[in-house]
Amino acid sequence: MAWVRxxxxxxxxxxxxxxxxxxxxxxxxxxxxxFRARGLAVFKDDEELEKGEEIAxxxxxxxxxSLCSVVVLSPRYASSRWCLDELLKILQSRAEFGRFVFPIFxxxxxxxxxxxxxxxxxxxxxxxERYASDKVQTWRQALRDVAGFSGxxxxxxxxxxxxxxxxxxxxxRLQPKLPxxxxxxxxxxxxxxxxxxxxxxxxxxxxxxxxxxxxxxxxSNLSLLMILNKLHLPxxxxxxxxxxxxxxxxxxxxxxxxxxxxxxxxxxxxxxxxTKFMGNLKSINLRNSKNLHITPDFSRIPNLExxxxxxxxxxxxxxxSLGLLQKLSYVTFKCCKNLKILPRKFGMDSLKCxxxxxxxxxxxxxxxxxxxxxxxxLALEGTSIAELPVSVGNLNGxxxxxxxxxxxxxxxPNTISNLKSLSRLNISGCxxxxxxxDNLNENEALEYLNASETSIREVPSSIVLLKNLRLLSFxxxxxxxxxxxSSFFPFQNIFRFNSPPTPNRxxxxxxxxxSSLDKLxxxxxxxxxxxxxxxxxxxxxxxxxxxxxxNFVHLPTGCISKLLKLEKLLLKCCPNLESFxxxxxxxxxxxxxxxxxxxxxxxPRQIRGHLASFAFDKLQDANQLKTLLVIPGNxxxxxxxxxxxxxxxxxxxxxxxxxxxxxxxxxISLDLAQLRHQYSKSEWWGILVCLVVEDVESSPxxxxxxxxxxxxxxxxxxxxxxxxxxxxxxxxxxxxxxYPHLLILxxxxxYWFYVQDKFQLIFYSSSLKSKLVxxxxxxxxxxxxxxxxxxxxxxxxxxxxxxxxxxRPSGGTLPPHLSPWIWISDLKVPQHxxxxxxxxxxxxxxxxxxxKFCSLEGTVIHVLxxxxxxxxxxxxxxxxxxRDEFFSTSLRDxxxxxxxxxxxxxxxxxxxxxxxxxxxxLLWKDTTSSIFKGTDTDGLYSMIQSLVKEYTTLLHAKxxxxxxxxxxxxxxxxxxxxxxxxxxCCCTANPGYGGLFRDVEGxxxxxxxxxxxxxxxxxxxxxxxxxxxxxAWDLGYxxxxxxxxxxxxxxxxxxxxxxxCAYGSLVADIxxxxxxxxxxxxxxxxxxxxxxxxxLAKLGAEQHQLYCFLxxxxxxxxxxxxxxxxxxxxxxx
Length: 1133
What we know:
The protein has 30 helices and 40 strands. It is an alpha/beta fold.
């Protein structure tokens, strides 16, 4: 019997030995991924040894610490001395420790390996010329030995089948070597389970775990369990530790939670008899668990504080015991589309937030208990409730009542007046809602009232008593339509019945009491002359006023000019408006496009008069291109440097490289060094650009846009490159009628703060049907003296312009529908996807001679939909009810139908738009760039699903920032807020850097990461500090505590001689930042306290991006943030 000495403790299940040149990026990579998906820890050496190097000791240790070795014998395997040395060590480990060895004969014959024929003979012939004969003989014998083991030849087998067979056999052979219960959790030793406090699993792909049902039974001290990827548990799950505090399990795979003492029938849908007491469990997060049908009996989880069941689309019933939990503070069932049954009564006295948004099957709400005074948010968007219970009046602490899209609700109960703390009421999209309560004034704390797109015909006069109201919107409230009566009385016109006139516009009260109102939206309400109250000018706090889409000819005299705080005025698409109002002195943006009855500006002095009303002194910190004025006009003011329209081939080619298709371009080049020399910083405020755009075709076009893109020359200082990467965007407010329009844009001097010499702006036009051109262009500098001179002439210029009007042209009516480029710009999809959609409608995507996947003609519609490859993707996401229509319409009809309305009435419109757009974009990219190799579409479909999920998160974050009720901080709040900034670098040959901002409670505010390329770790650490301070300043934070675990970096910043220091330039930049007007402390922290910043730095090294700012924490960071908040240490990765 052979003697086997004691094996070292194992760290890996599998060691992969392979020849990188043959299989690194194909077979071996796929095999590695398959092992990882099965839950096996795999060692794969990704470093190529240079000539003359010896095999690393760490590699030899990894072989000894692996339970088995998989040897991929490929044609060039024997040509590598390092592969042969690996093989010797593998066989030695087999002999000494009893390790398994599995050979794979990849594109080679096992007999050729054993007898060293063909390519193996050639390899050994070279070895014999270079190495000692005894060494070569040991290599030869090793190959003979491994060729005699049972293995797998790759010939005549599909790769996927071969890999599945290999993984299954390795798994089965390793099972006896692995401990029994919780050891199925890879890397957790059964003897140490009582010491485990946190378990976090995050894998890049779905994973089937062969865990024993009692895998967690011995982890008595487990307080945090986070599963962040899709996990399949074929053996089920019997129990969870009673001491668990936080359970976060995305896409939970089972139908119910194992919070029970025994399971009589594991296949049952209801496993809640004999519940186990779990007094420590405070948080349950089972987001997107599609198999969950029913919740547990919550009576034995008395201390539960947070319940997150968002996206559990098959959840039907919530156990009635939920309503009895006295410590529960946060509950969300968002997007549980089949949820029907709720507890009859809610009595959760500590509940602060209840979310039922996106639950269309919910038709009735529970009664609310008398002591539910802590509930501050009730979100019911998209439900099918017809009324609120009278007991809603018990919610004395309610701040937010959100009913957007509840199409069946008609009115609010009278008890709504009891809600003295109600500050936000959103009933937008409640199409049958016809009347606001007459006693609405009793909700004296109300600040936000959105009644857009409702059937409200008359606004109650009591609304003027809401002294705290800040936002009021009746957008699209037209009352009953003029032809609605005809639909009920089809013979009315035939028999000429007389009926009382029905108002088809909104009836407004006086506005005199709304002293706090800062935003008023009365757009598209069919308001005629005389319908706007004369006291509109009394709104002394008004900042934004939207009167677009109405039918008035004139506005009340002086009502606009009295709004001294007004910054944004929208008068778009008012076809009868004849005269432009006098403007107040502090506006930032005015849009009067598509006002067909307004005379185009012809006197340049009029433009100068309007510019006098703009608050240029308050626009200095905007740091972006801003549209000031859009108005009918055809002349460049004489004070602008006139530049003729020029169709520049070079600029058009530059745009194409950035996926932008243009009809025409004009570029403006600025010599900033000369401008800075000519004007001091205090005098030079910025640049004004004036464009005249016009459709030059014979027929009006409704489908065009103006965009811009900036070009900055390369810099020696990488900091400048970082802060001035390519920028692009659309100019807002482009008209949709064939009238010449004047656009005046402003770029403050701070926009080019780090640009040293030259800067170029390219403006481009793009149309879908006709040809829109930038007909004229001009620019000029803006000095403080210029603005002051214009202000002195404000009254004269404004008065002269107000008198300019002409009769409305015949036939000048609004188009029956918004132009496609407008609705595309409104889609909640990424910007590059909007550009792609416009390119399709502009016929800017080139057709291919043949499709590379099926050899048919490669038309756009074929590539995007009709190719068998594309069809196999679409059928996985398109509902069966609309598939016939989906696959039969023309290209343009296809896009209009499936982008302008939901695929089915009960589906999420925004989600369908995003899914459609991302899929079409990736299919096109796959055809042109081969982003996913091979004919199997599963990988491409997974990529689509992943991108949709990522973009949904990003767009949701942006939406939250943009909403008035969101959690984003105002500039004034940020100036006062204390924040902690942690920064770090990733110590590799290509070091990344990263950092994150948190408030005084440790809550995430934002983060960033990037890479410096090949540089030193110290430079990366200093750069992380510099970039963190720049980002903090730009975000408006003025009280900052910066922590780094590098005491050496702090010492350089505080004491280094800049002229002698190798990092003098960076240190100088940091010192300059420290001298700004803010409270800034730079201190040293322990390495373990800086773990979150370290994760971001590692992400920066992996992503190879110069700089990326994060509004929300990435998935890789979330476990560390949760662990920080619970003050537990994560398991080692």
